[in-house]
Amino acid sequence: MAMSRRTFHMITGTAALGLALGGSGEVHADVSAPTGPPPDPPRADGRAHTVGFDRYSMLVDGRRVVLWSGEMHPFRLPSPSLWRDVLQKMRGHGYNTVSVYVAWNFHSSAPGHHDFTRVRDLDLFLRTAAETGLYVTLRPGPYINAEVDAGGFPGWLTATPGTARTSDPTYLGHVDEWLTAVNRIAVRHLYTRGGGTIVLYQLENEYANHVTEAAGRDYMAHLYDKVRADGIDVPLFHNDKGRNGYWAPGTFDTGGERGRWLYGFDGYPSPFRPPPDWGYFGPGGTKGGSTASPDTPGFLAEFGGGWFDPWGGAEFGGKGYAESRRTRDAAYERRFHLTNLANGIKIHNVYMTFGGTSWGWLPAPVVYTSYDYGAALDEARQPTAKLVPMHQIGHLLHTVPELAELDRAEDVDVGGGPALRAYHLVNPDTGTHVHVLRNDSTGEAEAAVPVAGTTVRVPVPGLDARLLAAGMSLGRRTLRYSSAQPMLRLAVGRQDLAVFTGRSGEVTTTVLECAREPRVTVLEGDAAHTYAQGTLRLDVRLGGLVRVLVEGGGVARPLLLLLADDETSVRLWPHHTPSGPFLVHGPALLRTAQRRGTTAQLTGDTVDDADLEVWAPPGVTEVVWNGAPVPARGTASGSVRATRRLPGAAPVRLPALTGWRRRAESPEAAVDFDDSAWRTADRTTSYATTPVPAGQPVLFADDYGFHYGDVWYRGRFEGAAGAASVSLAYVSGTQGLLMAWLDGKPLGTHRMPVPDAKTVRRGTWSATATFPIAPGDGPHVLSVLVRRMQHDEDGGANDSHKAGRGLVSVAFDGASPAVRWRIQGEAAPDPVRGPLNNGGLYGERHGWHLPGFPDGDWEAVPLPRTERGQGVVWYRTRFRLAVDPGTDASIGLTLADDPARAYRAQIFLNGWNMGQYINDVGPQHTFVLPNGVLDTRGPNTLALAVLADGTTPSGPGTVELTLLGRAAGGVPVTLVDSPGFPSRSL
Ligand code: IPT
């Protein structure tokens, strides 16, 4: 039969290796029936599982699974409780996999030191993903890019010898320590052993620059060996930067284990051009085309579900994430993902699905604090309209596994003009046909698709796409075709259930094979039906939830057809449980469902008042929602329906922020400031890629152990009489600045120019600031504050993360005094909030950002406020929130002021650095304050470190709490530890 022509040599995992590794040793492998029902959502069930693949798809326990994955970064959500919220929202909306980078710099403040506690608790994240029923793709680098500082390399790595991302032995030594630490956790969560749900593991990231060199090939082979030696037995892969064929199976040494290595690639196509064909099914694909890896499933390790936004307002290239979400909207998602599906992609990962926040000093210089990304779930954890296609396609792929095994079928002419593109695919075992119809023009087009001897007319809106299925099983009955898009099929209780979707108002035709005439009841909505020649035809106008019950006609099991418009489709929640599947209709989110005797125990969210209707396993007659019984009764649809609506979210009132206290700092500028404890800047060599000018000591902050945020220098000199100016060369990354004082008097501020869309990725930002001076012979003190932005990423594998940061050199015009420098950056890393929380401002070094700092003697001031001066001024206040315990309120801090004012603010909430606001650059004004860091039912401390150029008046202007979303429900939130003053780190 069909199975015999397939090979399953690529099955990996303990079971496939025949190893008895504790536990029950039970093997769930049924390789003879990969097209059968999908495997249940994965859990940490303590059993051995096989994780393999063939050229079509992943095979989990021998069952076909399309991975429909979303990327999220735990390190961009510093509140572990909320990981569960995001993961549950992903699962509810049809994702079956979460892909995560692990950022080395987030976990490592010093060589050999790796911290996986608190907000860095990878083990907890992996447990939560397993509890949520999601597969995991783990991507621990060592290099990750990801728009984080140094592409994820720790700050200390910049001060080490050897070229990173090569086989250099020093680098590999550090890498091995990192991987040992990550893998020690990861092995406990491998799905192969049932300890967790990791099914894929990535080596490196878009590694394209040393592909043909021994230094690159040996490096990849080393990573492969290391990860295998650490016990990672799931398939490994790399994400090629485009379909180049780099690191395809067989191109480097994988210890003879060719079959356990997947080829993956990344795609970030322009939303303004038609989606590309990847060439999986033959020539004509982009670059490597079908030859890239014909024996492994089409694998998009990253596919752009949005895009990152650079600093600056629209005129500089930064447009804000609303724009990103507008250009990659729901129709974009449908058009591009359905094209990917039509191109044989069976492992999808949408980068990002929840972008989150690059808090503290995490963002690479190219981006600002928000990493919202225009993703389907926004930074404030709110679902957006982009989830509609993800939800519909995700649930379809999960409940109709035939779609995991599709061959290209003969092209069909669908008319509709040149902009209407049609892809035709067929499952070789079941004969299910799939047509993907894509409209690349802006006006609506009609596709005329030949199906089963007739022509199905399908409207495809401009710049949109539609999937049409024919010959698809709906359980006991078969769909001949439908012009509405299938979303799921489930056998629930005593009936089969199928959901079809489309835009509201669309007129759709659905035809079922029915050898004998069935009984048809339109239970709700605008539907007409006719029976003729062995087929039942339903003509349905979409709007709300149309229900048609099909019974009899020689088939014992009834079929309930639900036709939902888009809006309604995301209120339909299939949920697979060990007692069978559920389908829940009504609420804004279904988080969990389980059967307890005759009761359906459900948890989830409502925003507005909502219906609650449940299709559940047989015998379920009662419903409990978020712990409270809901009166309900059985319906003609075979469901149990609440007799009253669930209440929506309670209103949330946010207090005004008042009671501000102000204190100026920057005492480092004063002549008599005591800097005797500061490091002497006397090094003569550096591993930085920025040259050290002859005759000058090394001044780069990283060489003195200061890796993040602001850094101070104090230089003493004599014999400068006659000097007309002093020139300070510095390197900072985009948006950096330098301010200087001579003997306590401001010399001025130099700022890196605001980049435009073209220059923003230029990388290193270096400049020379020249200030006129008229010193006497001395002695003199030159105080310099450099706002370093972060280290460059190292996408080109050329050590660009080692570009210097801080001062480079000093020169005088008309004199040449020797300057003796001392340097001070951040204090010892905050052991709780992590190495990226703080820079080296005086206030940070002395705990002014921490809760409980005694600010009673600070000046009480109202905001908004205007003052003028060069340097740093702090503002602190406290506020108390009292959000209703059943409400998940998502809250932000919004700053606004006259955009001509040249100042910026570092925002500290309960000591946590929530990001940087640059008043005259933007575009970000609202900063998400994650619950857990924010106490929504208690007191909070807010501190702003305002750094002003002195060239204009500065603020703060208005500073307000803003409500970014609310729901009744949510997840229980445990507050993160937020140690106050005095802190042991100071
Ligand atoms: C690709 C990276 O792999 C990922 O880490 C992230 O940087 C992403 O892009 C952009 O957000 S790099 C590719 C787009 C050149």
Task: Describe it.
It catalyses: Hydrolysis of terminal non-reducing beta-D-galactose residues in beta-D-galactosides. Belongs to the glycosyl hydrolase 35 family. Residues 1-29 form the signal peptide. By secondary structure, the protein is mainly β. Helices cover 10% and strands 34% of the residues. Strands 4-5-6-7-8-9-10-11 form an eight-stranded parallel beta barrel. An eight-stranded antiparallel beta sheet has the order 12-13-14-17-18-21-24-23. Residues 1-33 have low confidence and may be disordered.
What can be said about this structure in brief?
With 986 residues, the chain is mainly beta. The strands form eleven sheets. Strands 4-5-6-7-8-9-10-11 form an eight-stranded parallel barrel. The chain has an eight-stranded antiparallel β-sheet with strand order 12-13-14-17-18-21-24-23.
Q: What would CATH call the class of the largest domain?
A: Alpha Beta
Strand arrangement, major sheet: 4-5-6-7-8-9-10-11
- Rounded average pLDDT: 93
Work out the helix count. 10
Q: Main sheet, how many strands, which sense, barrel? A: 8 strands, parallel, barrel
What is the CATH superfamily label of the largest domain? Glycosidases
Structural class: mainly beta
